[in-house]
Specification:
By secondary structure, the chain is an alpha+beta fold. Helix content is 33%, strand content 17%.
């Protein structure tokens, strides 16, 4: 399904015949025609001559003057020399930002007054932290281990790694990562200096490859798994990393660290609740994002149904923030979103695993669904692999306090007595 979304037409060609005249595979002609058509219709953008000159001057600055970063004021002076109207210069910069010629972030404090002329140079700067050193003899070894094993980037490490980045301060780079939800400021007990800033960067963590449905033993209560599914049949690229980053930075969640429970970039454990003692495990699976809720403490906690209901509402808020980050792009120098998007609307849905041991389809994961409103049946649920209505299991009921409460109301007949409707098979 994922491949089909990307590739609409597949051409099978014989590579050994390329450029051999009459012996060349006929499919090459079709491919050349389609590539030319795409390039001439989709890739040609009418650009003012003054903008082209502007771009060439900026490129000369990088090549001849070795300037990787200039101020926005300096860029405006170059634009004025190229006869570009002052109000059009931010638009021109965003145009070339979209093409990858420069980097311009007018909506991020600290970077709005700078234009990065060499994107490659800036990516190399980021790589000083994101590309973890392999040597065990490097400086700040313990801080690198903290980042590699727990995803925590502390202020002394990123300041040391980015101290030589030309005209861009380490704190400004962190603001960029936070703005795109690739990092979140957190407070943990993993670093001895509580005054130093800590940021969670899940992308640098190792990959979880074990059973996605496995959870640590010893829990007292467990809700059935919630799946965030996508209409495309696969998790939208970048969605999971941003989701767990937003959760890590939210006041409702706390990162959970334990020596027996490692953390991965595609499987993060949080503490959630009031007080935050219940565990929420968020896992990226090939087709969906799985959320598991487990209770290990018997006292001092809210009811499990209330906990799951609250979590479901917060997850919706977190997902909306991810979608806004992935969809929206800012053009205004003052950070005003014009509503433009670069990707289509993300269609997703919350679904809940059927965990009824009597279900005939229990060998394969499938979902439990609330009965349609107005259904003449007292049983509120059925699984999507069956047409049999039933009561939810304890694990399933955790996510549906409202639906279950409605079904528990007595059905009043004309005589005023309670009546139970027959089960629909």
């Amino acid at each position: 399904a994922a491949f089909g979304e990307v590739v609409k037409t597949v051409c099978i060609v014989d590579n050994t015949t390329a450029g051999k005249g009459e012996k060349e595979d006929e499919t090459y002609k079709y491919l050349r025609k389609e590539i030319y058509k795409f390039a001439s219709e989709k890739l040609v953008v009418k650009t003012p001559v003054t903008w082209v000159l502007f771009r060439k001057v900026l490129q000369v600055l990088v090549r001849e003057s070795k300037k990787n970063v200039v101020t926005f004021e300096y860029a405006c002076a170059v634009g004025a020399a190229c006869k570009i109207n002052p109000e059009d210069i931010p638009v021109a910069l965003m145009f070339y930002h979209e093409l990858g010629v420069v980097l311009f972030y007018p909506h991020i404090e600290g970077l709005r007054d700078k234009v990065i002329l060499s994107p490659k140079w800036f990516v190399d700067c980021l790589g000083k932290v994101l590309a973890l050193p392999k040597s065990e003899n490097c400086e700040n070894l313990q801080l690198w281990k903290l980042l590699r094993e727990k995803g925590i980037l502390v202020q002394p490490l990123y300041v040391a790694a980015w101290k030589n980045c030309e005209s861009v301060e380490p704190e400004e780079i962190m603001k960029l990562l936070v703005n795109f939800h690739l990092a979140a400021e957190v407070k943990t007990n993993e670093y001895h200096d509580s005054s130093a800033k800590q940021f969670f960067l899940p992308a640098v963590l190792p990959t979880f490859t074990d059973d996605y449905f496995s959870v640590p033993s010893g829990y007292l209560l467990r809700a059935t798994s919630l799946h965030i599914t996508f209409a495309t049949g696969y998790v939208t690229p970048g969605f999971f990393i941003r989701l767990v980053t937003i959760m890590a930075g939210s006041p409702e969640c706390q990162l959970f660290y334990h020596k027996t429970i490692p953390i991965f970039h595609n499987r993060i454990t949080f503490q959630f609740g009031d007080p935050p003692v219940d565990r929420v495990i968020v896992t990226e699976m090939p087709p969906a994002i799985q959320v598991d809720v487990l209770r290990y403490v018997a006292t001092g906690t809210i009811p499990m149904q209330t906990l799951c209901h609250n979590l479901k509402e917060f997850l919706e808020i977190y997902c909306q923030k991810v979608e806004k980050c992935l969809q929206s792009i800012t053009y205004s120098r003052f950070g005003i979103d014009d509503g433009s998007t670069r990707v289509s609307k993300i269609r997703r849905e919350f679904k809940f695993l059927c965990c009824n041991p009597k279900c005939k389809s229990s060998s394969e994961p499938h979902y439990v669904v609330p009965s349609p409103k107005g259904q003449t049946c007292d049983l509120p649920f059925f699984c999507d692999a069956s047409t049999v209505y039933r009561q939810p299991t304890h694990e399933e009921a955790c996510w549906f306090p409202k639906e279950i409460k409605e079904t528990q109301q007595p059905h009043i007949t004309i005589s005023g007595t309670s009546s139970q409707m027959p089960v629909l098979q």
